Amino acid sequence: MTTDLSHLASEAFCYLTTTGRVSGRPHTIEIWFALNQQTLYMLSGGMERSDWVKNAWRQPNVTVKIKDMVFAGKARPVKDTAEDALARQLIGAKYHESEDDLDEWLKSALPVAVDLLV
Description:
CATH class: Mainly Beta
Number of domains: 1
Strand order of the largest sheet: 2-1-5-6-7-4-3
């Protein structure tokens, strides 16, 4: 049986906590996200140069806070072409009304998945 997280999907941000690859200390960022069942998708405009991505690749065990709920999760790169397209489509659909022009970011940013352990 899977946990229904759909009530959290409309939240504007989540808070991703990774373990610092140098310091070993928790590092939390606020980031846009989209949910697909128990998988959370984010896009990194800084690609693999972003500290949070480097941290997640080094130590994939992360925590995610959405609203007042905290989940353990495992971060992973999105390598499958269909999943890559899904991540971009979900995030683009969710944030399409943003005042920013997201077209280039949606095409070029690095998709990252977190499989939530629920």
